[in-house]
UniProtKB/TrEMBL annotation:
Protein name: PPM-type phosphatase domain-containing protein
UniProt xrefs under Gene3D superfamilies: PPM-type phosphatase domain
InterPro entries: Bact_Sigma-Reg, PPM-type-like_dom_sf, PPM-type_phosphatase-like_dom
UniProt keyword annotations, A-Z: Hydrolase
The PPM-type phosphatase domain, residue ranges: 1-185
Region Disordered: start-end pairs: 189-210
Taxonomic placement: unclassified sequences, metagenomes, ecological metagenomes
Length: 210
């Protein structure tokens, strides 16, 4: 998620996307990737601009997720397939916003996943969606929704969440982008289910699944 809106934010997004492509091709570590993004942002963007992001690698063979959270809220959520376990926010401290300081500390976290587990990510445009009574959708409402609907296929989970947010907001205007990403682990011999949905105040919704 990029600070600000409009053309300036779009240009910063391009810088980050280019770094993502280079990361895939060069096979940098998560820490190296985050530091390179930070370096480019400090070099090419205004001092007041910054980026928050979650960078992650899923190790299919070992069913492990390695991730770094650089100031992104809401945090990623782990949705265990075992319904006796709670939906948990993957809280991580220490990693900084990108683009503000030349030197940053980067902390990687590893999470073992079981077949059927899901990971959910969203930008703050979702949790900060506001209705006509100036009430926010909020983290608590999001966790409650994920807990209730986590057994659904991820495509249905995301669709249902987008509809729930729309019902909550009602006729209030959308003021920020909303991006949602979810994937479910299918085990070493299966294909992971991935779904993404994105809306912006000026454009219709878009979504895809792989």
């Amino acid at each position: 998620d990029v600070s600000g809106h409009g053309m300036a934010a779009a240009l910063i997004t391009v810088i980050v996307k280019m770094a993502f492509r280079s990361w895939v091709e060069a096979e940098w570590s998560l820490s190296d990737f985050v530091r390179r993004v930070n370096r480019d942002l400090c070099q090419f963007t205004p001092d007041s601009s910054f980026v928050v992001l979650v960078a992650a690698i899923y190790d299919h063979a070992n069913e492990r997720l390695d991730f770094v959270n650089c100031g992104h809220a809401p945090e990623p959520f782990h949705l265990p397939s075992d319904l006796s376990q709670p939906v948990v926010g993957l809280t991580q401290t220490g990693s900084m916003l990108l683009g503000l300081e030349d030197y940053i500390e980067v902390h990687e976290t590893a999470l073992s996943l079981a077949p059927g587990d899901a990971i959910f990510l969203a930008t703050d445009g979702l949790t900060e969606a506001m209705n006509d009574q100036s009430e926010l959708y909020g983290d608590d409402r999001l966790v409650e929704f994920l807990t209730t609907h986590r057994s659904k296929p991820v495509a249905d989970l995301v669709t249902s969440l987008v509809e729930d947010v729309s019902r909550f907001v009602g006729s209030a205007a959308q003021s920020d982008d909303r991006t949602v990403l979810a994937f479910r682990v299918r085990g070493r011999h299966g294909q992971e289910d991935v779904t993404r949905h994105q809306t912006s105040p000026a454009s219709p919704a878009s979504g895809d699944s792989v």
